[in-house]
Design a protein that fits this description.
Blueprint: H1 9-18, H2 22-72, E1 94-95, E2 101-113, H3 121-131, H4 137-144, E3 151-157, H5 159-168, E4 173-182, H6 190-193, E5 195-201, E6 206-212, H7 213-217, H8 219-223, E7 232-233, H9 238-254, E8 259-266, E9 272-278, H10 316-325, E10 334-336, E11 341-343, E12 346-348, E13 357-359, H11 360-366, H12 369-379, H13 381-391, H14 417-424, H15 433-444, H16 469-485, E14 499-508, E15 515-528, E16 535-542, H17 560-574
Parallel strand pairs: 1-7
Antiparallel strand pairs: 1-2, 2-3, 2-4, 5-6, 8-9, 8-16, 10-13, 11-12, 14-15, 15-16
Helix pairs in contact: 3-4, 3-5, 9-17, 10-12, 10-16, 11-16, 12-14
């Protein structure tokens, strides 16, 4: 910027010659300079005001647009969740196939103490012991009198307990917000759900983590904030599960059994509609795992999945189906049943003397060990192994709960011809009721292998084929005859055409080898309706004894079968199955034409 002198000589000298006052020239220049400075300041101020106006207009536009968007959007409840190393307090719900709640979160509070802020420690200890009977007054007072400045009292409080503690009025008692996992149906489906507990926690929040069952298997997905709290939909039907558990519990008590298990599965989709194991527990108050004794005696033990047992004669239908599929026999093929069947120093006997020969169908209906073993001899070791492998009997069932990996079948160390013979009638290979359900599903659905699942699905699995449709159909006819003519006569449910096979296996001793004389595992594997199967049901009782007669009866026909029949009677209508009247056999009349 060029500055003009206030008294320029070019004007001063001429002014003096003409008699003008030079000071007037200076005053005029000063006025002009001040006007120029004011003009510059005004332009600068106007520019700043313009910029501020644009900024404020932009901000108001953004805020107004956001408010408009919020006014037209659907209201959502805010979720208290953070990522990284912070505590994630939200956990998604678990629902059944119809959207009914199986597991959810409940807002509650924890209670902690800061003893150095307490006014009357003895009074606080006395009042807390009154509110919480499981707390000891003397131990509380001793803790309050120590050097610790922080201690947990209770991790979860009910609203009534919180109010009672609040009424104590001591500043040393503090509350922290919590979200606890709630199972509103109590014990229902306990072994499937498993349970959850607190992991990382502080006085402001606590992270819930799965400890067993499906809660543990899907722990990451249930805790992932990116899922937006979307509920995990299971294949279970809450109503069917409740009915199945009620019947199973009543049957276990009626048959004086030590434990029981039941699996109900869709034969086409592999969906597990109901899975029960008794004794059970309440996941809201999950007991601690046992540190001694037999793990199977704990209510935490899932007998349907973890329990591997010799399932007895229920395996015989697999032998018959494979023999028919290989072309080695048909339903009317005559099988040698003279006994005992000797193999080295071993003898195979039947429960009753069924005569010297039976058709393959009668071998299944009468449940002949000898006849089944002879059929297995014709099949051979390798072909039997391949067939059972295709049905999933040689590895743990990949169900979506962490306990499933513990249900690996127990196989013979040396799979000899004798092993093939004993396995054919359900001895020498131990598997879970869930394995058995999957195997029967393959027969029921026309010969395709099925993997059980606890997740809801709407389409058939269409697994690999393990049997021809003709062989599967013939096997289903045999299973129906077991109920109408054979060992499972108590399993007939009018209108639902139940087919199935009984299995009674001596229970092995926990130590020292061998079997108990009067302890058995009784099993009934059923399909219904047999002419167009939709579901498979497996019921297993541990050490049952039926005592209504003059002598105790332990076989599956007297124990597991009636329980399964009552279960089908209860759950079939809940599954949408209408009873059908089976056509009676027509009289032997030959029609003639006029």
């Amino acid at each position: 910027m060029t500055r003009t002198p206030l008294r320029p000589l070019a004007r001063i000298l001429p002014a003096r010659e003409t008699g003008e006052n030079p000071d007037a020239i200076e005053r005029e220049n000063i006025r002009l300079r001040h006007e120029a400075m004011r003009q510059t300041s005004r332009l600068r101020a106007e520019g700043r005001l313009l910029v501020l106006s644009v900024v404020f207009l932009s901000l108001f536009t953004v805020v107004g647009t956001r408010m408009a968007m919020l006014s037209f959007s659907e209201a959502q409840e805010p979720r208290a969740s953070v990522s990284g190393s912070m505590i994630t307090s939200q956990r998604a719900d678990i629902v059944d196939r119809r959207g009914r709640i199986l597991a959810t979160n409940l807002e509650t509070h924890s209670l902690y103490a800061q003893p150095h802020h307490m006014i009357d420690k003895a009074h606080v200890a006395r009042e807390l012991a009154t509110i919480f009977p499981d707390l000891d007054e003397e131990k509380l007072l001793a803790r309050f009198s120590g050097k610790r400045k922080f201690m947990w009292i209770k991790k979860k409080l009910s609203p009534e307990q919180k109010q009672a503690v609040h009424d104590i009025g001591d500043p040393g008692l503090m509350f922290g917000p919590r979200e606890m996992r709630l199972y509103p149906n109590g014990r229902l489906a306990a072994h499937v759900l498993g349970g959850a507990s607190f992991r990382k926690e502080d006085v402001r929040a606590a992270e819930l983590g799965g400890v067993a069952g499906i809660e543990r298997y899907f722990d990451d997905a249930l805790r992932d904030p990116s899922n937006g709290g979307k509920a995990l939909a299971l294949s279970l039907d809450l109503t069917v599960q409740a009915a199945a558990e009620r019947v199973l519990y009543g049957g276990m008590k009626l048959m004086n059994a030590k434990g029981a298990a039941a699996v109900l599965m869709d034969v086409h989709t592999g969906e597990v509609i109901s899975l029960a194991s008794l004794p059970d527990f309440d996941p809201n108050d999950r007991p601690r795992p046992p540190t001694e004794g037999n793990a199977s005696d704990s209510p935490l033990f899932n007998r349907a999945v973890q329990g591997v047992y010799e399932l007895g004669s229920t395996f015989k239908i697999f032998t018959a189906a494979q023999a028919m599929d290989l072309g080695l026999a048909n339903p009317e093929t005559i099988i040698d049943t003279k006994g005992p069947l000797r193999w080295g120093k071993h003898k195979i006997r039947d429960f009753h003397n069924y005569g010297s020969e039976l058709s393959l169908t009668k071998v299944i209906v009468k449940s002949s060990n000898i006849g089944t073993a002879r059929v297995a001899q014709s099949i051979g070791v390798e072909r039997q192994q391949d067939f059972l492998r295709g049905l999933g009997f040689l590895e743990a069932t990949p169900l979506e709960i962490v306990e499933a990996s513990g249900g690996k079948p127990l196989l013979p160390p040396n799979w000899s011809e004798l092993s093939t013979m004993t396995i054919s009638y359900g001895h020498g290979l131990s598997s879970s009721p869930l394995h058995l359900a999957a195997g029967y599903a393959a027969i029921a659905n026309g010969g395709t292998a099925i993997k059980p699942t606890l997740l809801k699905r709407d389409t058939p699995q269409n697994g690999p084929r393990v049997l021809s449709e003709a062989s599967a159909r013939a096997a289903r006819i045999m299973l129906r005859k077991v109920v109408t003519e054979g060992t499972a006569s108590f399993g007939d449910v009018p209108g639902y055409a139940v087919g199935g096979k009984t299995g009674t296996a001596d229970k092995p001793k926990e130590q020292g080898g061998g079997y108990y004389d009067e302890k058995v595992i009784a099993t009934f594997a059923a399909i219904f309706p047999a002419h167009d199967p939709k579901y498979v049901l497996v019921v297993t009782l541990d050490e049952p004894v039926e005592t209504s007669g003059p002598e105790p009866r332990r076989t599956a026909g007297w124990t597991a079968v009636p329980v399964a029949a009552e279960m089908i009677r209860r759950v079939a209508p809940l599954l949408g199955l209408r009873p059908e009247i089976e056509p009676a056999p027509l009289a032997d009349i030959t029609p003639t034409s006029n």
